[in-house]
Structures are given as C-alpha cells and as structure tokens.
Amino acid sequence: MLKHSYRCPLRWSDMDAFGHVNNVAYFRYLEESRVDLVFRLAPQHEGQELSRGSVVSRQEIRYLRPMEYREAPVVVETWVVDIKAAALTFASVIRDSDEVYAHGSTVLTPYDLQTGRPRRITPKEREFFEFYLEKPGLAEAKD
Amino acid sequence: MLKHSYRCPLRWSDMDAFGHVNNVAYFRYLEESRVDLVFRLAPQHEGQELSRGSVVSRQEIRYLRPMEYREAPVVVETWVVDIKAAALTFASVIRDSDEVYAHGSTVLTPYDLQTGRPRRITPKEREFFEFYLEKPGLAEAKD
Amino acid sequence: MLKHSYRCPLRWSDMDAFGHVNNVAYFRYLEESRVDLVFRLAPQHEGQELSRGSVVSRQEIRYLRPMEYREAPVVVETWVVDIKAAALTFASVIRDSDEVYAHGSTVLTPYDLQTGRPRRITPKEREFFEFYLEKPGLAEAKD
Amino acid sequence: MLKHSYRCPLRWSDMDAFGHVNNVAYFRYLEESRVDLVFRLAPQHEGQELSRGSVVSRQEIRYLRPMEYREAPVVVETWVVDIKAAALTFASVIRDSDEVYAHGSTVLTPYDLQTGRPRRITPKEREFFEFYLEKPGLAEAKD
User: Fold this and answer.
1) Which chains touch B (3 or more CB pairs under 8 A)?
2) Contact predicate D129/D88, CB 8 Å
C-alpha cells in the first residue's frame, strides 16, 4: 500500500484568537493534500477524471493535540480505506516527525459537471486508487 | 428539548473556484453558531465557563446538496445528543426553509487554560446544556 | 450624492492570534459590500455588466482603531470618487454609530471575460455610478 | 540595501469563484512574508520588539496581472522605504521568475501591548531595519 504524503505549510493566520491553529484550518490542510493527490498527481495517470469534478460528501477530523503556528510544514499522510461504486473513502493523519495532531476521514464522490450529478468511479480510477488502498483486515487504521 | 437556531450569513468568498460554497466553509458556519451558543448565550446563565476555554475534539459534516452564495443567511440548528463527564456532543443541521444542506456533529471538551488540560463539565454547565438535550430513544436524530 | 451602506456581520474567525480583527479581514468587509453594490444592486438597473466581469486593480485601507469580534455588524459606507474611461474609484468607511474603524479605497476595472482584457465603462454604467459620485470640490473625502 | 525574500506557497482555496487568486489573498501573502521578517528574522537580532506588538496602520496593493493557483510558491520581496519615529513603511513585490503580479505597500506601527498605545521605534530596531532601507533618491521604488 502506498501512502500519499504531503508537506503542508501553515499560515500564521491559521491561528485563532486563542493562539492555536483553529480547528477549521485542519480541513484546509486536508484539502491542500487532496488537491495534490487528486488534482495534480492522479491526472498524470491515464483515465483519471476526478480533478474535473468531484465533491466531498462527508468529512471528519478527530483532534489529538493543539498546534501553534510554526515555520515547519505539517505532513498530511493519506491512504484509501474503501472504494465503493460512487465513493472513495480516504483516511488521513496530520503529523510531524514527533507528534500526531489529528486523524481525518474524507468521502469523495465523483461528480459529472455536465449533468450536475454524482457518477460512478471508472475502472481506471479504481486501478489508480487501489495503489493507496489499505488491505482488508488492516482496515481499523482509521482509528 | 430546545434547539438553538442561528441565522448565519454567507460570504461571497465562501465559494471556491468551482462556484459552490466550499466544503470547509460549512465548518465556519458551525463555528459561528457555536460562538453564539457557547460564547454569547451560555454566559448569560450562571456558572457557564466554556467560553473561557473549550476545544473541539471531533467534528464531522455530511453534505447533502451543493450551495451557492446568496444574500439570505442559512440557519444552523443545533442541539445536544450526549453529555459525558468531559465532552458535549452537538448535532447540527444547516438548512433554510426549503432545503437541508448538511448535517454536522461536534464534540466539545471543556478546557482549563491555566493548566492546559481538559476538565470535567460542571453541574451548572450540565444543567444549561440539558435544555438542549435530545431525549434517549430519539437519539438517531444525528441521521 | 448617494452613499451605499452595507451592514457587514463579523465572524469570530476574523480575529487573529492577537485577539483583534485581523487587518486582512477588513478587505473582506469591503468585498462583501462591493458584492452587494456591484453584483446585487447594480444589476437591478439597465445595462450594468460589472457583475459579469470586473477586477480590483488597486486597493488600500488605513486603519484607525482596533476592532474586536462582536455580534453587531459594522457598516461599510461606500461612494464613488472618480470615474475614468476604464476605472471606477470607490471610497469606503468602515464604521458603526460610535466609531470609524478604517478608511478604504478601491479601484475597480471592468473586465471582458471573453477576451480576457479590461474594457471601458459603458454610458449606462457611468450613469448608474454617477448617483454615488462625490462632487468635485468635496473630493478630499477620502481623508 | 537588503531585500527580504520570502517564498510563499499558494493554497487552492486562495482562488475565488472566478477561478483566480482572490485579491484579498495577496494581503495574506504580504502577511506571511511580514511574519517571516518581523516575527522570525528580526527577533534573532538584539533589541527587536516588534514581534511582541505591532499593528498595520495602512496597506495597499496594486494588482498587475491575474494569478491562478499553482504548485510553485510566489516570491514576496520586501524592503523598507521610510522609517519615521513611530512607523516603518515597507514596499513589496509579489512575483516569480517570469512575472510581477502585484506591488504592495505596508505601514507598520510599533505597539505597546501593556499600555495599548503606539510607541516609538527604538534605536536598535531602526538599526536592524536600516539594512533593508532603500536609499533616498531611489525612493520611487514603490511605483
């Protein structure tokens, strides 16, 4: 199984009035990482169309410890825990070499912009994302 | 059971390059609503200390339909589905009079800023949030 | 001369780690106000096309006093100080009934999305924005 | 004269519904660059206190060409064009190796958090920022 690893720089403005990185900013980090995987990396392979249309249909973060702004990027590691007919489920960890800050889970649905409707994952797309698929039996990794 | 209802104005900048309200913005709407309930409304009652320190320890949104910027605010309805020793779980619906756009779930943990540690919910706090507590047996409301 | 007046709600997240509304958020307030004037109000009148394409080509804010998050919206008052062949200059004040928080200045250029180029202001557009034009001789109002 | 140079990564969410980097995001790039110069670099030198308290009292951007999200950071180059008793004026250019996207100007005022008032620049601070000061006679660089 491959893990997608993305170094995501923080911004000072990610902190809120309590002086910690705001809980909403973590979803930006997931987005940045997803943009790298789905919009930049996937289209380098044949038949990948998610960059042309996809929607987040569910997402969740569990926060493990507070974070303050620092120069060093955090690392967002992402892999696939489920591939359904019309939905990919990603698990993510936001971490650095010392600590894990949060666990994330994102369901992405392919979306046909012309019809304005969800669509099925194509065989080529499935093939690409299976490289990142966690094997059954190890599937508790989300927690 | 009370439901907290908050009219949350959108901003044009909540939309992303796809011309829809970005999935991350929905968490801002939950935050705005929570600020109203926990930072403004709760402190009007005796013994409410969450506004002085609390952290989001988990949150989730399930997206039901896309939204575009419009003048009319969305309504964020929030109620309590669980009160544990050191965690309040809120359920939210983001809606207007016609449509439901998303369901949210948020776990809030009281936090002692002086010690930098989670703390227990006080009896006064429990008393306040029980007004918003969904009765057992109806607890599937999150879905 | 008309002044466009827009009540702009703050968000708690507009504050930064110093506990004040971040200087960048004030430009969001100008944007929200401009969306109301140029995207909502102007198109109710004949021949107004700026909502289909326009770019900010210069903007400036002078900050007079710090602001903290509060429930009450701020008011953004905007009027026109100059109309050139291909540029509208707006002056804005961000205020409430007690205080002035900032002065803003924005140059907006009509933009033809099909050609990807700036274009001239049409006579109908000029006619509309002249209602908001400050008369020469009073033009120091920016300060 | 030194120029401070900061490589600022874009975020996909910096784009707005028109598919360009939103004009407000450019002020975030200036902020990120200023955080690097004033909060990170300056405190490595003796007697620099601006990181403990300073406010932006005026800022301006002139936009030269639209920008889309891309992987490569933009470079924010910043230097000092004026040092007054209680105000530092910075000029900035947002660019990459091919293009200049915007010119910025920022006035920063030292701020005493204890008294809640502006304060004067200290000799040590002046000494540090003079390394970045453009010599008189070249002072049109803002344009």
Assistant:
1) A, C, D
2) yes
